[in-house]
TrEMBL record:
Similarity comment: family membership: Belongs to the bacterial solute-binding protein 3 family.
Native organism: Bosea vaviloviae
Protein name per the record: Amino acid ABC transporter substrate-bindnig protein
Domain of life, source organism: Bacteria
CDD domains: PBP2_BztA
Cleaved signal peptide residues: 1-20
GO biological processes: amino acid transport
Keyword terms of this UniProt record: Signal, Transport
Domain Solute-binding protein family 3/N-terminal, chain residue ranges per copy: 31-260
Stored InterPro entries: Bact_solute-bind_prot3, SBP_3_CS, Solute-binding_3/MltF_N
Keyword Magnesium: no
SUPFAM superfamilies the record matches: Periplasmic binding protein-like II (SSF53850)
Amino acid sequence: MRGAAAAGALAVILAGQAGAGTLDTVKQRGTLACGVSEGLGGFSDKDAQGNWTGFDVDFCRALAAAVLGDPQKVSFTPLSASQRFDALKAAKVDLLSRNSTWTLGREAELGLAFAGITYHDGQGFLARRSLGVDGALALDKAKICVEAGTTSQLNLADFFRANSMSYDEKAFPNAADAFAAFQSGQCDVLSRDQSALYAERLRLTKPADAIVLPDVISKEPLSPVVRNDDFAWFNVVKWVHYALVNAEELGISKANVDEALTSQKPDVRRFTGAEGGFGKALGLDPDWAVRAVKATGSYAEIYERNLGVGSKLGIPRGLNQLWTMGGVLYAPPMR
């Protein structure tokens, strides 16, 4: 009887753990498990001391601050393009914040949910200046390095077929190998998301010998990714992103967020948690959005620090500017 009782108790415990949502799991664990790239300047990169920085890294820190109250309570797992979705589905990470393109196939076929576009990107080309080309339509018969198993590989085939051109594809299992092949001269052109090409160009021995062509051949909406079986967690991840965008719209920054706590403006009071009760609805503390901004700043601060014209990459906001400033960045209201 004692054995049966013990077995029954264990079954109840395991059933409770299996049924626990991701938000509860993260709170109980005390850390957020975030899947990132294996190293992409401006997005997710680890320095010699083991410190992670970048646009995608900052999103994970903002999420950790909102959920756990501490932006340092994050463990980062570097994942290749071929590993990332399997790792997420196997619950090895709580989310991907890893320059991943939102597509119909990935949502419908892989059982994933994309929690809002954090960066509007597009595929481009990094070409050797010695080729003497000034646009993608001049790349007929070029040798092109690309990462296998990515939307970049598929888009490349579509572009050349649509324009009745041919190319010599050099596909590699990961981004590092594709870059190394371009660097060593195995191909004339490297193709991937244009934002990544700005970072890759800086890694070349002679960056001035290569140019990022102006052409964008695809839509690459980059988004955090979660499993599609936990809508409550999906909502948390999605609204942390929207909070960072709303903070920029409201003029709330890391420097002045404490002042927002005394504001009498209704939309600011809802943001800080003084009104609305939205934190409770999400399963978070009332000041969850304030904690996110205190950790990383608003969307504008995250962008400019990691990717903007004042950073090493020097990428203009472009489409990633607020909708009120000529871009397409837009967040639903917090009300």
